[in-house]
Hints:
Elements lengths: L3 H8 L21 H10 L2 H18 L42 H37 L1 H15 L3 H10 L6 H12 L1 H14 L3 H8 L4 H37 L11 H8 L8 H28 L5
Amino acid sequence: MPDVTKTAAVAEGAVVTPSVDAPQPKAEKARSLWGDAWSDLRRNPYFIVSAVLIFFLVLISALPSLFTSASPTAGDLVKHFLGKPELGHIGSAEWLGYDGQGRSVYARLIYGTRASIIVGVCVTLIVTVLGGLVGMLAGYFGGVLDAVLSRVTDIFFGIPFLLGAMVVLQSFTERTVWVVVGALAFLGWTQMARVMRGAVITVKQADYVHAATALGAGTARILFRHILPNAMAPLIVVATISLGGYISAEATLSYLGLGLAAPTVSWGVDVSTAVDQIRVAPHILLWPSIMLSITVLAFIMLGEAVRNALDPKLR
């Protein structure tokens, strides 16, 4: 039976208070910049493709024995490089043929991934931390400290990157992976410092930074709780794109004979040794070049996707 009292009240224009037990609409939680960026990245095909490629590259570098049982350094001169690759034997030692020393090209491709990934990731981490710290201090404190740090950055920035790395590496008799990482990081932090300095100068003018200062927050708290999280976006974009560049720089130095050297397995070393046989066995040069290009392209695509997601102007 209908409620006569409630019906009459509605007819007279009275306001009916909803029942306490009635379900209330949930307020939608506001998403942060990082939440919006992740939502955009999940729908970006460039991010998905690059993330899948990078995942497999990292997996190959971490567990190369899962992809081949052949040794990348064991040579057999009976297996001449003029022999045609056995393209039907997928995953075998002879799949992509042999190089001039009878070593499996496929095995060297797999094991060469580790050197490139280690150099790219480690150099990127070092220059991001070092350049980010220098840029944050210069941008926040300003004055004399900013002038000194900016001039030091300009001095290092004026040194040609590859030429400076060649000079630094030339002074070492044994050029291991970590020596190459140190040489590239020694000269590669300047761009990160400039990007971070500009971002910090912009962020420190925000109202929440002035409010934290007025409430008596310490310098460390302001820097690491308020400024750093809001100034990291451009630094992450530059670091992601630069990672592919560091991998390419390592291959270039190895090709010139100033980077990694045997017995270290590297795509740059393979490209350098394959130049002598390029006319009679171009596949020896082709495969490491393709792997290097795919790796660099994957990180550049990832950086572009991250840039589009973090930059509100590009949405």
